[in-house]
């Protein structure tokens, strides 16, 4: 089974690709570059849900037209973890991929797009695959929030946890990748390594290098799980 992995930036793409060893084959796409390693195509699609959705959709359409369709799409990279559930350097696999700021502000608080009567605000990856990846990597399973603006205050952190109890992490691309995968009829997964704690912005406390190393290790362990997974067997 072919797997498309969508990251935000090249350093995340390269961290994932290192897990597979060897020299990846470089394949050009308009506005992007795929790194192919065996069954895995790894793409740096850009930051934010819109860029991620566009990049994933284009790659999915291109593979289908070339009669090499993907069987799974993975949103991967680093992200912020909600303390104490997701400490620095830990891994999180999404049980739910949630658009945490898609909706409307009202005098009574935030309303997700579903409460407005249109659209959707979450996708659920295949539960069996989430469990298998968690078992292989030690990742904590739980909701991962997609935001367009990285959280930088205690008040915003508290508001997110009130709206989405049990959320483990936030990132900027998962929901966009999930939207593209849904339209292509392909299952989606999100795997994140925690580089910083969600809360007041403190760049000095971020551990990006450690998180990228954890991401490489995670894909080294989960690669065989993803490659061998068959959606029709679950």
Provide an overview of this structure.
There is one protein chain. The protein has helices spanning 10-18, 49-65, 127-137, 154-163, 174-184, 208-228, and strands at 3-7, 25-29, 32-37, 40-44, 72-81, 91-99, 103-106, 109-112, 122-123, 140-146, 169-171, 188-197. The chain has 234 residues and is of the alpha/beta class. The chain has a 5-stranded mixed beta barrel with strand order 5-11-10-6-12, surrounded by 4 helices. Strand 2 (25-29) and strand 3 form a beta hairpin. Helix 2 packs parallel to helix 5 (174-184). The two termini are 15 Å apart.
Short description:
The chain is an alpha/beta fold. It is built from 6 helices and 12 strands.
What is Rg?
17 Å
What is the share of helical residues?
25-40%
Regarding quaternary structure, what we see is single chain
- Overall pLDDT, averaged? 91
Biggest pleated sheet = 5 strands, mixed, barrel
Topology overview:
Blueprint: E1 3-7, H1 10-18, E2 25-29, E3 32-37, E4 40-44, H2 49-65, E5 72-81, E6 91-99, E7 103-106, E8 109-112, E9 122-123, H3 127-137, E10 140-146, H4 154-163, E11 169-171, H5 174-184, E12 188-197, H6 208-228
Parallel strand pairs: 1-4, 1-5, 5-12, 6-10, 10-11
Antiparallel strand pairs: 2-3, 3-4, 5-11, 6-9, 6-12, 7-8
Helix pairs in contact: 1-6, 2-5, 3-6
